[in-house]
Design a protein that fits this description.
The complex is a heterodimer of chains A (417) and B (108).
Chain A lengths: L3 H26 L4 H22 L5 H19 L1 H10 L13 H15 L6 H12 L4 H8 L3 H18 L8 H23 L6 H19 L7 H14 L2 H4 L19 H14 L7 H12 L7 H15 L3 H15 L1 H11 L5 H11 L4 H14 L3 H22 L2
Helix pairs in contact in A: 1-2, 1-5, 2-3, 5-6, 6-8, 6-9, 7-8, 9-10, 9-11, 10-11, 11-13, 11-14, 13-14, 14-15, 15-16, 16-17, 16-18, 17-18, 18-19, 19-20
Chain B lengths: L1 E10 L8 H16 L3 E7 L6 E4 L3 E4 L7 E11 L2 H9 L9 E6 L2
Antiparallel strand pairs in B: 1-5, 1-6, 2-5, 3-4
The chains are: A mainly alpha (417), B alpha+beta (108).
Family (chain B): Belongs to the YciI family.
InterPro entries (chain B): Dimeric_a/b-barrel (IPR011008), YCII (IPR005545)
GO molecular function, one term (chain A): DNA-binding transcription factor activity
Chain lengths: 417, 108
C-alpha cells in the first residue's frame, strides 16, 4: 500500500506530469487533437491511481507514467482506424516528427511550444489564463473556478471556446522557430504576467491557490529563461518582478485571509532568497538597451524590497512616471499617485488623486480614504465604505474593513476626551 | 474627445539647462496628464543647437527661423473635451519659471 506521504505527493506529481505529457502528446498528434492527448493522459492517471493503491508507488513513478502513456498511445493508434484513415492522411509525412519519446529534450521543447500555443492572441487574456492554468499548470476546473471566483460551468464554457480557437490555429508544437518566438513573445510574457498577478492580487480567499498561481507563473517564466531565443532582457525583467513580489507573499498574508499592506508587514518574513534571485534576474535584464514595462515594474518592486534608502519613494515615483507614459492603466495611475503622496505629502496627493476621477474603481476610493485618514476621518470612513461596496475581491474587502474599523475606533477614542 | 497640441517655447533656449529638480517637476506634470489617461502623444524635446531652416531657392540657414527670438523646445498632444481643459494642463507646466510660454492648438 502507498504510504500517506506518498499519497500526498501524488496530486503534485500528477499536476506536473499532466502538463508535460499533454505537451509531448500534442506535439505528436497536433494541437487539433488536443482532446485525444488529454484523454490519454487522464486514462494514464486513472490506471496509476488504481495500480498504485494496490501495489504502492513504483520505484520511479514518472518513468512508470511515461511507459503507460506511451503504451496507451500505441494502442490508441492501432485501434483507431478513423485516425489512421482520415487524420493521418491530412498530415503530410514530413510534418510529422518520426519518432517521439518522453525524454528531457522533447519535454522541454514541447512545454515551451505549448506555452506559445496557449498564449494565443486570438483568445481573450482571461481565456488564455484559464487555458494556461489547465494545460500548462494542470489545474482542475474547480481550482480554476476558485481562483477566478467563478462558477465551474462558466470556466468549462470558457475553456471549451478557447480550445476551439487553439484547434483552428494550426500552431505547430515543435522546436520553436525564431520568427514564431519574436512575433508571439510579448503575448506570452503578458499572459504569464497576468497569471502571476491573478495569484498575487487574487480575488480568491484561498492562500493555497494564490501561492500556486504565483509559483506556476514563475516556473513557466523560468522555462523561457532556459531557451536562448526566449531568454531576453524583458523575460528576465518579468522574472525579477515575480521574485521580488513573491518574496513578500508570507508577510502579506494575514491570518484571516486579508492582505497586510506593505507598511504594516513584518519585514523579517520577507524571503531574502527570493530577493537575491530578483536581484540576479534584474541584473540579467539590464544587459540590453530596451526598457520594457517589466523593467520598470521590477525596478519598483526592487525599491520596495530595499526599505532602507531614504529617497526610495522618489525613485519609485520616477519609475511610475515612466511606466504610465508607456502604458496607461487605472492601477498604475493609482499606484503612481500613492507614490506622489509619499514624496509630496497627502495634501498634494489628494489634489493629484481627485483628478483621476476613477469612479468605478474601488482602488480610487481606497486611495482617497487612505489620504484623508489623518485630516478628515469621517470622510475617510465614507470613502472606504464606497471602496468596499465596489470591490469583488474578498481579501480586499477584509483589508478595507480593517482600515475602516481602525478609524472608527480612533474616532470613538477621540470622542471620550 | 478632441486633441490639442501643446507647443513649448523658450527665449534663449541654448543657455537654459534645466536642473534635476526642474526635470523631475516636468516629468511629474507629464505623468500627471498620462495618469488621467489624457495624454495622446508624449511628444518630443527638440534640439535648439542642431537645427537648420530651409527657405526658397535652396537657402539654408543655421538654427531655427532667425527673425523670431523664441525657440520651439518641444511639444506634446493631449486629449480633452475642450480647449479650456487643455489650457488648464498647460498652466501647470514649469516652463513659465524659465520665462517660456505654451501655445495650445487644436489638432484638426
Amino acid at each position: 500500500m502507498a504510504t500517506s506521504r506518498d499519497q500526498a505527493l501524488i496530486p503534485q506529481l500528477f499536476r506536473l506530469e499532466y502538463t508535460k505529457m499533454t505537451a509531448v502528446l500534442c506535439r505528436h498528434f497536433g494541437l487539433e487533437n488536443i482532446a485525444v492527448a488529454e484523454d490519454l493522459v487522464s486514462e494514464t492517471f486513472l490506471k496509476a491511481t488504481e495500480v498504485w493503491a494496490l501495489n504502492g508507488l513504483p520505484e520511479n513513478p514518472t518513468a512508470w507514467l511515461y511507459t503507460v502513456a506511451k503504451n496507451k498511445t500505441r494502442d490508441y493508434l492501432k485501434r483507431n482506424a478513423v485516425f489512421e484513415t482520415q487524420v493521418k492522411r491530412e498530415v503530410k509525412p514530413e510534418e510529422r516528427e518520426p519518432d517521439w519519446d518522453f525524454n528531457e529534450e522533447s519535454i522541454t521543447d514541447s512545454q515551451l511550444a505549448m506555452i506559445f500555443a496557449v498564449c494565443n492572441p486570438g483568445n481573450s487574456t482571461e481565456a488564455q489564463i484559464c487555458l494556461a492554468l489547465q494545460i500548462l499548470c494542470g489545474f482542475s476546473i474547480e481550482e480554476i473556478a476558485d481562483a477566478f471566483l467563478s462558477k465551474k460551468e462558466t470556466i468549462k464554457k470558457r475553456l471549451f471556446r478557447a480550445k476551439n480557437v487553439l484547434r483552428q490555429d494550426n500552431f505547430q508544437i515543435r522546436t520553436l522557430q525564431e520568427t514564431v518566438i519574436t512575433s508571439r513573445l510579448d503575448a506570452v510574457l503578458k499572459t504569464l504576467y497576468l497569471l502571476f498577478n491573478e495569484g498575487y492580487f487574487s480575488k480568491s480567499n484561498s492562500q493555497l491557490i494564490r501561492r500556486e498561481l504565483c509559483s506556476e507563473a514563475i516556473r513557466l517564466t523560468l522555462i523561457l529563461t532556459e531557451n536562448a531565443w526566449t531568454n531576453v532582457p524583458k523575460t528576465n525583467a518579468l522574472l525579477a518582478l515575480m521574485c521580488f513580489q513573491s518574496s513578500r507573499l508570507d508577510a502579506r498574508a494575514g491570518d484571516s485571509g486579508e492582505t497586510i499592506l506593505y507598511e504594516r508587514q513584518d519585514k523579517s518574513l520577507w524571503s531574502q532568497e527570493l530577493i537575491d534571485k530578483g536581484n540576479y534576474y534584474l541584473v540579467n535584464a539590464c544587459s540590453g538597451t530596451e526598457i520594457s514595462k517589466y523593467h520598470l515594474e521590477a525596478g519598483i518592486a526592487y525599491w520596495h524590497s530595499t526599505p532602507t534608502d531614504q529617497h526610495k519613494w522618489q525613485h519609485i515615483l520616477q519609475l511610475y512616471n515612466q511606466l504610465i507614459l508607456i502604458e496607461y492603466s487605472p492601477i498604475t495611475a493609482l499606484n503612481r499617485t500613492f507614490a506622489f503622496a509619499k514624496v509630496y505629502g497627502n495634501e498634494k496627493g489628494i489634489q493629484e488623486a481627485e483628478k483621476l476621477n476613477l469612479r468605478d474603481s474601488s482602488g480610487y476610493y481606497a486611495l482617497l480614504g487612505y489620504l484623508y485618514t489623518d485630516t478628515a476621518a469621517d470622510k475617510a470612513i465614507d470613502l472606504y465604505q464606497k471602496a468596499i461596496d465596489l470591490t469583488k475581491s474578498l481579501p480586499e474587502k477584509k483589508t478595507l474593513r480593517s482600515a475602516m474599523e481602525k478609524l472608527d475606533q480612533q474616532k470613538s477614542d477621540d470622542d471620550e476626551y | 474627445m478632441k486633441e490639442f497640441l501643446l507647443i513649448f517655447r523658450l527665449n534663449n533656449a541654448s543657455n537654459v539647462k534645466p536642473s534635476a529638480e526642474q526635470i523631475q517637476e516636468r516629468m511629474n506634470w507629464l505623468a500627471g496628464i498620462a495618469a488621467q489617461n489624457k495624454l495622446a502623444d508624449k511628444g518630443n524635446t527638440l534640439s535648439t543647437l542642431n537645427a537648420k531652416t530651409v527657405m526658397p531657392d535652396n537657402v539654408v540657414t543655421d538654427g531655427p527661423y532667425a527673425e523670431i527670438k523664441e525657440f520651439i523646445s518641444g511639444y506634446i498632444i493631449v486629449k480633452t473635451e475642450t480647449i479650456e481643459e487643455a489650457v488648464e494642463f498647460a498652466k501647470g507646466n514649469p516652463i513659465f519659471k524659465l520665462g517660456g510660454n505654451i501655445e495650445v492648438r487644436e489638432v484638426l
